[in-house]
Amino acid sequence: MTIQVSIFASEPGDGTESRPYRTIQEAIAVAASGDTILVGDGIYDACIRLDKGGSREAPLILSAVHPGGVTINGSETGICLETINGEVGFLIFRGLRFQGGSVIIRNVDGWTLENCEISHSPSEGLLIGDPADPDHGSVVGGGFHRISRCDIHDCNGEGITADRAPYLTIEHCRIFRCDTGIGLDRELTGAQLRYNHLHDNHTADLFLMIPYERIGIYGNRFLSKCGVRFLTPLITFTDNECADGGPWPEAEVTDEESYDPEPKEAGETEPDPRPEPPEPEPSPVHANLVLAHCEACVFPSAGETFTVHEVYVRGNEVWMTSVEQPEEAVYLDCEYGYSKKEPIADLKAPFTVDVTEDGNLLGIVNTLATFYRILSKNMVQDPRVVCAKIRDKANEALSAADITMRFTPQSLKFIMNKSFITLEEVIDMISAGEEEIVAEIVE
Known about the structure:
By secondary structure, the chain is mostly beta strands. The protein is built from 4 helices and 39 strands. The chain folds into 2 domains: 2-249, Pectate Lyase C-like, CATH 2.160.20.10; 283-430, no CATH class.
Protein backbone atom coordinates (compact mmCIF):
# COMPACT_ATOMS: atom_id res chain seq x y z
CA MET A 1 0.00 0.00 0.00
CA THR A 2 1.14 3.56 -0.73
CA ILE A 3 0.55 6.14 1.99
CA GLN A 4 0.64 9.80 0.93
CA VAL A 5 1.90 12.71 3.06
CA SER A 6 1.73 16.43 2.22
CA ILE A 7 2.63 19.43 4.35
CA PHE A 8 -0.17 21.29 2.57
CA ALA A 9 -2.87 18.73 3.44
CA SER A 10 -6.03 19.75 5.23
CA GLU A 11 -6.57 17.72 8.38
CA PRO A 12 -7.72 15.05 8.95
CA GLY A 13 -6.41 12.83 6.16
CA ASP A 14 -6.50 9.13 5.41
CA GLY A 15 -3.23 8.72 3.46
CA THR A 16 -4.79 8.64 0.02
CA GLU A 17 -3.66 10.87 -2.84
CA SER A 18 -6.75 13.06 -2.47
CA ARG A 19 -6.56 13.21 1.35
CA PRO A 20 -2.92 12.79 2.38
CA TYR A 21 -1.72 12.88 5.94
CA ARG A 22 -0.19 16.15 7.04
CA THR A 23 2.66 14.65 9.09
CA ILE A 24 5.08 11.80 8.49
CA GLN A 25 4.43 10.47 11.99
CA GLU A 26 0.74 9.95 11.19
CA ALA A 27 1.71 7.86 8.16
CA ILE A 28 4.15 5.77 10.22
CA ALA A 29 1.40 5.05 12.76
CA VAL A 30 -0.71 3.21 10.15
CA ALA A 31 2.11 1.76 8.01
CA ALA A 32 2.81 -1.96 7.85
CA SER A 33 5.37 -4.26 6.28
CA GLY A 34 5.61 -3.71 2.52
CA ASP A 35 4.07 -0.22 2.58
CA THR A 36 5.61 2.85 0.92
CA ILE A 37 5.23 6.24 2.57
CA LEU A 38 5.49 8.92 -0.13
CA VAL A 39 6.26 12.38 1.25
CA GLY A 40 5.42 15.48 -0.77
CA ASP A 41 7.73 18.47 -1.14
CA GLY A 42 8.12 20.84 1.79
CA ILE A 43 9.81 21.43 5.14
CA TYR A 44 8.63 19.15 7.96
CA ASP A 45 9.57 20.45 11.43
CA ALA A 46 9.58 17.22 13.39
CA CYS A 47 11.64 14.50 15.00
CA ILE A 48 10.49 11.26 13.37
CA ARG A 49 10.23 8.28 15.73
CA LEU A 50 10.19 4.99 13.87
CA ASP A 51 9.17 1.93 15.87
CA LYS A 52 8.28 -0.51 13.10
CA GLY A 53 9.74 -1.98 9.93
CA GLY A 54 9.17 -4.50 7.20
CA SER A 55 10.53 -7.87 6.16
CA ARG A 56 13.27 -8.98 3.82
CA GLU A 57 10.68 -9.64 1.10
CA ALA A 58 8.54 -6.58 1.90
CA PRO A 59 10.54 -3.69 3.40
CA LEU A 60 8.97 -0.54 4.77
CA ILE A 61 9.92 2.41 2.53
CA LEU A 62 10.01 6.09 3.44
CA SER A 63 10.59 8.11 0.26
CA ALA A 64 10.35 11.64 -1.11
CA VAL A 65 8.03 12.06 -4.08
CA HIS A 66 10.76 14.21 -5.65
CA PRO A 67 14.30 13.41 -4.46
CA GLY A 68 15.69 16.40 -2.57
CA GLY A 69 12.30 18.10 -2.33
CA VAL A 70 11.58 17.00 1.25
CA THR A 71 13.42 18.58 4.20
CA ILE A 72 13.04 17.08 7.67
CA ASN A 73 14.11 19.79 10.11
CA GLY A 74 15.33 18.48 13.46
CA SER A 75 16.81 21.71 14.80
CA GLU A 76 14.39 21.85 17.75
CA THR A 77 15.50 18.52 19.27
CA GLY A 78 18.80 17.92 17.45
CA ILE A 79 17.35 14.70 16.00
CA CYS A 80 15.68 14.34 12.60
CA LEU A 81 14.91 10.62 12.73
CA GLU A 82 15.39 7.87 15.30
CA THR A 83 14.49 4.20 15.40
CA ILE A 84 13.06 3.29 18.82
CA ASN A 85 11.34 0.64 20.89
CA GLY A 86 13.26 -2.53 20.28
CA GLU A 87 13.92 -4.57 17.24
CA VAL A 88 12.74 -3.37 13.84
CA GLY A 89 14.11 -4.21 10.45
CA PHE A 90 14.25 -3.88 6.70
CA LEU A 91 13.79 -0.16 6.21
CA ILE A 92 14.56 1.91 3.11
CA PHE A 93 14.96 5.71 3.17
CA ARG A 94 15.11 7.46 -0.22
CA GLY A 95 15.60 11.00 -1.48
CA LEU A 96 15.16 12.77 1.89
CA ARG A 97 17.00 15.80 3.26
CA PHE A 98 17.70 15.73 7.01
CA GLN A 99 18.72 19.13 8.31
CA GLY A 100 19.59 20.48 11.76
CA GLY A 101 19.76 17.14 13.54
CA SER A 102 21.10 13.59 13.57
CA VAL A 103 19.73 10.45 11.97
CA ILE A 104 19.99 7.67 14.58
CA ILE A 105 19.58 4.03 13.56
CA ARG A 106 19.63 1.47 16.38
CA ASN A 107 18.49 -2.15 16.62
CA VAL A 108 17.54 -2.42 12.96
CA ASP A 109 18.01 -5.67 11.08
CA GLY A 110 18.71 -4.56 7.51
CA TRP A 111 18.31 -1.01 6.24
CA THR A 112 19.23 1.21 3.29
CA LEU A 113 19.79 4.97 3.14
CA GLU A 114 20.09 6.13 -0.46
CA ASN A 115 20.13 9.46 -2.32
CA CYS A 116 19.67 11.32 0.97
CA GLU A 117 21.33 14.42 2.45
CA ILE A 118 22.22 14.99 6.12
CA SER A 119 23.50 18.42 7.08
CA HIS A 120 24.06 20.96 9.86
CA SER A 121 23.66 18.52 12.73
CA PRO A 122 24.88 19.84 16.10
CA SER A 123 26.48 16.43 16.70
CA GLU A 124 26.86 13.35 14.48
CA GLY A 125 25.22 13.31 11.08
CA LEU A 126 24.37 9.60 10.94
CA LEU A 127 24.74 7.57 14.13
CA ILE A 128 24.60 3.80 13.65
CA GLY A 129 24.34 1.97 16.97
CA ASP A 130 25.51 3.64 20.16
CA PRO A 131 29.12 3.29 21.39
CA ALA A 132 28.01 4.38 24.87
CA ASP A 133 25.46 1.57 25.18
CA PRO A 134 26.59 -1.99 24.30
CA ASP A 135 22.96 -3.15 24.16
CA HIS A 136 22.07 -0.70 21.39
CA GLY A 137 23.80 -1.74 18.21
CA SER A 138 22.56 -1.45 14.68
CA VAL A 139 22.08 -5.16 14.11
CA VAL A 140 19.77 -7.68 15.70
CA GLY A 141 19.88 -10.34 12.99
CA GLY A 142 21.67 -11.05 9.75
CA GLY A 143 20.56 -8.14 7.59
CA PHE A 144 22.83 -6.00 5.47
CA HIS A 145 23.14 -2.25 5.90
CA ARG A 146 23.85 0.18 3.07
CA ILE A 147 24.48 3.91 2.74
CA SER A 148 24.57 4.83 -0.94
CA ARG A 149 24.89 8.08 -2.91
CA CYS A 150 24.32 10.33 0.12
CA ASP A 151 25.71 13.79 0.88
CA ILE A 152 26.63 14.37 4.55
CA HIS A 153 28.11 17.73 5.46
CA ASP A 154 28.49 20.57 7.95
CA CYS A 155 28.09 18.41 11.07
CA ASN A 156 29.78 19.27 14.37
CA GLY A 157 30.58 15.63 15.06
CA GLU A 158 31.36 12.74 12.76
CA GLY A 159 29.55 12.60 9.45
CA ILE A 160 28.98 8.87 9.97
CA THR A 161 29.75 7.02 13.19
CA ALA A 162 29.13 3.27 13.30
CA ASP A 163 29.23 0.75 16.13
CA ARG A 164 28.06 -2.87 15.98
CA ALA A 165 26.99 -2.89 12.34
CA PRO A 166 28.62 -5.88 10.60
CA TYR A 167 28.40 -5.99 6.82
CA LEU A 168 27.84 -2.24 6.64
CA THR A 169 28.45 -0.79 3.17
CA ILE A 170 29.16 2.91 2.59
CA GLU A 171 29.42 3.65 -1.13
CA HIS A 172 29.35 6.58 -3.56
CA CYS A 173 28.86 9.10 -0.74
CA ARG A 174 30.23 12.60 -0.36
CA ILE A 175 31.16 13.67 3.19
CA PHE A 176 32.63 17.10 3.86
CA ARG A 177 32.96 19.91 6.41
CA CYS A 178 32.41 17.61 9.39
CA ASP A 179 34.65 17.17 12.42
CA THR A 180 35.50 13.66 11.20
CA GLY A 181 34.16 12.18 7.98
CA ILE A 182 33.66 8.54 9.01
CA GLY A 183 34.37 6.96 12.41
CA LEU A 184 34.16 3.17 12.73
CA ASP A 185 34.22 1.42 16.09
CA ARG A 186 33.62 -2.25 16.99
CA GLU A 187 31.81 -5.31 15.61
CA LEU A 188 32.00 -4.25 11.98
CA THR A 189 33.19 -7.48 10.38
CA GLY A 190 32.72 -7.41 6.62
CA ALA A 191 32.20 -3.65 6.40
CA GLN A 192 33.00 -2.09 3.02
CA LEU A 193 33.88 1.52 2.17
CA ARG A 194 34.06 2.06 -1.58
CA TYR A 195 34.07 4.93 -4.05
CA ASN A 196 33.38 7.65 -1.49
CA HIS A 197 34.63 11.24 -1.69
CA LEU A 198 35.66 12.93 1.56
CA HIS A 199 37.11 16.44 1.75
CA ASP A 200 37.40 19.52 3.98
CA ASN A 201 36.86 17.56 7.21
CA HIS A 202 38.62 18.93 10.28
CA THR A 203 40.05 16.06 12.36
CA ALA A 204 40.17 13.16 9.87
CA ASP A 205 38.39 11.85 6.80
CA LEU A 206 38.41 8.33 8.24
CA PHE A 207 39.19 7.13 11.76
CA LEU A 208 39.17 3.40 12.56
CA MET A 209 39.06 1.98 16.08
CA ILE A 210 38.36 -1.69 15.32
CA PRO A 211 41.44 -3.75 16.24
CA TYR A 212 39.89 -7.18 15.67
CA GLU A 213 37.72 -6.62 12.59
CA ARG A 214 38.44 -7.07 8.90
CA ILE A 215 37.04 -4.46 6.53
CA GLY A 216 37.66 -3.41 2.94
CA ILE A 217 38.44 0.17 1.90
CA TYR A 218 38.95 0.78 -1.79
CA GLY A 219 38.42 3.31 -4.56
CA ASN A 220 37.86 6.23 -2.16
CA ARG A 221 39.17 9.79 -2.23
CA PHE A 222 40.36 11.07 1.15
CA LEU A 223 41.27 14.66 0.29
CA SER A 224 41.28 16.50 3.61
CA LYS A 225 44.67 17.55 4.94
CA CYS A 226 44.04 15.44 8.06
CA GLY A 227 43.61 12.28 5.97
CA VAL A 228 43.15 8.75 7.33
CA ARG A 229 43.96 7.44 10.82
CA PHE A 230 43.56 3.86 12.02
CA LEU A 231 44.16 1.70 15.10
CA THR A 232 44.04 -1.66 13.33
CA PRO A 233 46.22 -3.40 10.77
CA LEU A 234 43.39 -5.73 9.67
CA ILE A 235 42.13 -3.73 6.72
CA THR A 236 42.30 -4.03 2.96
CA PHE A 237 43.26 -0.57 1.75
CA THR A 238 43.65 -0.41 -2.02
CA ASP A 239 43.19 2.06 -4.89
CA ASN A 240 42.45 4.98 -2.58
CA GLU A 241 43.64 8.56 -3.08
CA CYS A 242 44.94 10.30 0.05
CA ALA A 243 45.87 13.96 0.02
CA ASP A 244 48.32 13.52 2.90
CA GLY A 245 49.97 10.34 1.63
CA GLY A 246 48.38 8.17 4.41
CA PRO A 247 46.94 6.12 5.92
CA TRP A 248 48.86 6.59 9.15
CA PRO A 249 48.63 4.28 12.18
CA GLU A 250 48.13 6.13 15.45
CA ALA A 251 49.33 3.30 17.75
CA GLU A 252 49.49 -0.44 18.16
CA VAL A 253 46.36 -1.74 19.91
CA THR A 254 46.72 -4.89 21.98
CA ASP A 255 43.34 -5.07 23.76
CA GLU A 256 39.78 -3.86 23.31
CA GLU A 257 40.26 -0.63 25.21
CA SER A 258 40.19 2.58 23.25
CA TYR A 259 43.51 4.16 22.47
CA ASP A 260 44.07 7.14 24.77
CA PRO A 261 47.32 8.99 24.07
CA GLU A 262 49.07 10.64 26.97
CA PRO A 263 48.15 14.31 27.33
CA LYS A 264 50.76 16.81 26.22
CA GLU A 265 51.80 19.85 28.16
CA ALA A 266 50.53 23.17 26.82
CA GLY A 267 52.61 24.23 23.87
CA GLU A 268 54.38 20.85 23.62
CA THR A 269 54.63 19.42 20.12
CA GLU A 270 56.18 16.38 18.50
CA PRO A 271 57.87 16.22 15.12
CA ASP A 272 55.64 14.82 12.39
CA PRO A 273 57.11 11.40 11.45
CA ARG A 274 55.28 11.26 8.15
CA PRO A 275 57.19 11.85 4.94
CA GLU A 276 56.22 14.69 2.69
CA PRO A 277 53.85 13.45 -0.04
CA PRO A 278 55.68 13.18 -3.36
CA GLU A 279 55.00 15.58 -6.18
CA PRO A 280 52.50 14.09 -8.63
CA GLU A 281 54.13 12.60 -11.69
CA PRO A 282 52.58 12.92 -15.14
CA SER A 283 50.45 9.87 -15.80
CA PRO A 284 48.84 8.47 -18.94
CA VAL A 285 45.07 8.69 -19.24
CA HIS A 286 43.09 6.14 -21.22
CA ALA A 287 39.64 7.59 -21.83
CA ASN A 288 36.83 6.15 -23.95
CA LEU A 289 36.17 9.13 -26.21
CA VAL A 290 37.51 12.59 -26.89
CA LEU A 291 35.65 15.74 -27.92
CA ALA A 292 37.97 17.57 -30.31
CA HIS A 293 38.19 21.15 -31.65
CA CYS A 294 36.60 22.76 -28.59
CA GLU A 295 38.36 26.13 -28.99
CA ALA A 296 35.03 27.98 -29.18
CA CYS A 297 34.74 27.41 -25.42
CA VAL A 298 36.77 30.13 -23.67
CA PHE A 299 36.46 31.21 -20.04
CA PRO A 300 38.48 33.01 -17.35
CA SER A 301 40.36 30.83 -14.86
CA ALA A 302 42.47 32.16 -11.98
CA GLY A 303 42.98 35.47 -13.74
CA GLU A 304 43.99 33.82 -17.01
CA THR A 305 42.19 32.75 -20.16
CA PHE A 306 41.37 29.06 -20.53
CA THR A 307 40.68 28.03 -24.12
CA VAL A 308 39.46 24.46 -24.21
CA HIS A 309 41.33 22.30 -26.71
CA GLU A 310 40.06 18.75 -26.12
CA VAL A 311 37.84 16.99 -23.60
CA TYR A 312 38.54 13.34 -22.76
CA VAL A 313 35.65 11.41 -21.21
CA ARG A 314 35.49 8.12 -19.32
CA GLY A 315 32.19 7.46 -17.56
CA ASN A 316 31.62 10.52 -15.36
CA GLU A 317 35.30 11.51 -15.38
CA VAL A 318 36.59 14.30 -17.60
CA TRP A 319 40.06 15.57 -18.54
CA MET A 320 39.95 19.00 -20.18
CA THR A 321 43.07 20.36 -21.90
CA SER A 322 43.71 23.97 -22.82
CA VAL A 323 45.48 25.73 -25.66
CA GLU A 324 47.41 27.88 -23.18
CA GLN A 325 48.82 25.03 -21.02
CA PRO A 326 48.88 21.82 -23.08
CA GLU A 327 51.07 20.01 -20.53
CA GLU A 328 48.28 20.16 -17.89
CA ALA A 329 44.70 19.01 -17.78
CA VAL A 330 41.75 19.95 -15.63
CA TYR A 331 40.32 16.80 -14.08
CA LEU A 332 36.60 16.75 -13.25
CA ASP A 333 34.63 14.07 -11.46
CA CYS A 334 31.09 15.06 -12.37
CA GLU A 335 29.40 12.66 -9.98
CA TYR A 336 31.24 13.76 -6.86
CA GLY A 337 31.95 17.39 -7.71
CA TYR A 338 35.71 17.20 -7.51
CA SER A 339 38.21 19.06 -9.65
CA LYS A 340 41.97 19.55 -9.80
CA LYS A 341 44.72 20.43 -12.23
CA GLU A 342 47.24 17.69 -12.90
CA PRO A 343 50.18 17.14 -15.23
CA ILE A 344 49.41 14.74 -18.03
CA ALA A 345 52.00 12.72 -19.92
CA ASP A 346 49.73 11.01 -22.44
CA LEU A 347 46.02 11.31 -23.25
CA LYS A 348 44.44 8.58 -25.33
CA ALA A 349 40.95 7.68 -26.50
CA PRO A 350 39.82 5.23 -29.21
CA PHE A 351 36.99 7.46 -30.51
CA THR A 352 37.12 11.13 -31.55
CA VAL A 353 34.10 13.37 -32.04
CA ASP A 354 34.40 16.81 -33.67
CA VAL A 355 32.23 19.21 -31.67
CA THR A 356 32.16 21.72 -34.55
CA GLU A 357 29.83 19.29 -36.34
CA ASP A 358 27.26 19.30 -33.52
CA GLY A 359 26.33 22.31 -31.41
CA ASN A 360 24.88 20.02 -28.76
CA LEU A 361 28.33 18.64 -28.00
CA LEU A 362 29.79 22.12 -27.74
CA GLY A 363 26.99 22.77 -25.26
CA ILE A 364 28.19 19.84 -23.16
CA VAL A 365 31.72 21.30 -23.21
CA ASN A 366 30.35 24.68 -22.10
CA THR A 367 28.45 23.03 -19.25
CA LEU A 368 31.60 21.23 -18.10
CA ALA A 369 33.54 24.49 -18.24
CA THR A 370 30.88 26.19 -16.12
CA PHE A 371 30.97 23.33 -13.61
CA TYR A 372 34.74 23.66 -13.31
CA ARG A 373 34.39 27.40 -12.69
CA ILE A 374 31.90 26.68 -9.90
CA LEU A 375 34.12 24.06 -8.27
CA SER A 376 37.18 26.32 -8.49
CA LYS A 377 35.16 29.22 -7.00
CA ASN A 378 35.66 31.31 -10.12
CA MET A 379 32.00 32.15 -10.69
CA VAL A 380 30.65 35.67 -10.16
CA GLN A 381 26.97 34.72 -10.07
CA ASP A 382 25.31 32.58 -7.42
CA PRO A 383 26.25 28.99 -8.46
CA ARG A 384 22.76 27.75 -7.58
CA VAL A 385 21.18 30.20 -9.99
CA VAL A 386 23.68 29.27 -12.71
CA CYS A 387 23.04 25.55 -12.26
CA ALA A 388 19.27 26.03 -12.30
CA LYS A 389 19.42 28.07 -15.52
CA ILE A 390 21.49 25.45 -17.32
CA ARG A 391 19.50 22.55 -15.86
CA ASP A 392 16.12 23.98 -16.91
CA LYS A 393 17.27 24.67 -20.44
CA ALA A 394 18.84 21.25 -20.80
CA ASN A 395 15.85 19.36 -19.44
CA GLU A 396 13.48 21.01 -21.91
CA ALA A 397 15.51 19.48 -24.71
CA LEU A 398 16.36 16.19 -23.02
CA SER A 399 12.80 15.33 -21.98
CA ALA A 400 12.07 13.90 -25.44
CA ALA A 401 14.82 11.33 -24.88
CA ASP A 402 13.60 10.63 -21.31
CA ILE A 403 16.87 12.00 -19.92
CA THR A 404 16.96 14.36 -16.94
CA MET A 405 19.94 16.48 -15.96
CA ARG A 406 20.50 16.99 -12.23
CA PHE A 407 22.94 19.89 -11.93
CA THR A 408 23.89 21.42 -8.57
CA PRO A 409 27.03 23.21 -7.35
CA GLN A 410 28.12 19.81 -5.99
CA SER A 411 27.46 17.42 -8.88
CA LEU A 412 26.44 16.96 -12.51
CA LYS A 413 24.37 13.81 -13.06
CA PHE A 414 21.99 12.39 -15.63
CA ILE A 415 19.00 10.09 -15.10
CA MET A 416 17.23 7.88 -17.62
CA ASN A 417 14.36 5.52 -16.80
CA LYS A 418 14.86 6.24 -13.07
CA SER A 419 18.49 5.11 -13.20
CA PHE A 420 21.69 7.13 -13.29
CA ILE A 421 23.59 7.11 -16.56
CA THR A 422 27.06 8.45 -17.21
CA LEU A 423 28.12 11.57 -19.06
CA GLU A 424 29.79 9.32 -21.61
CA GLU A 425 26.45 7.60 -22.32
CA VAL A 426 24.70 10.96 -22.69
CA ILE A 427 27.28 12.12 -25.22
CA ASP A 428 26.80 8.91 -27.20
CA MET A 429 23.03 9.45 -27.27
CA ILE A 430 22.87 13.16 -28.10
CA SER A 431 25.65 13.16 -30.70
CA ALA A 432 23.26 11.62 -33.22
CA GLY A 433 20.21 13.68 -32.19
CA GLU A 434 18.92 17.19 -32.59
CA GLU A 435 18.55 18.17 -28.92
CA GLU A 436 20.07 21.48 -27.91
CA ILE A 437 21.58 21.13 -24.46
CA VAL A 438 23.13 24.49 -23.64
CA ALA A 439 24.90 26.72 -26.08
CA GLU A 440 26.66 29.25 -23.90
CA ILE A 441 28.67 29.61 -20.75
CA VAL A 442 26.68 31.39 -18.08
CA GLU A 443 28.63 34.40 -16.83
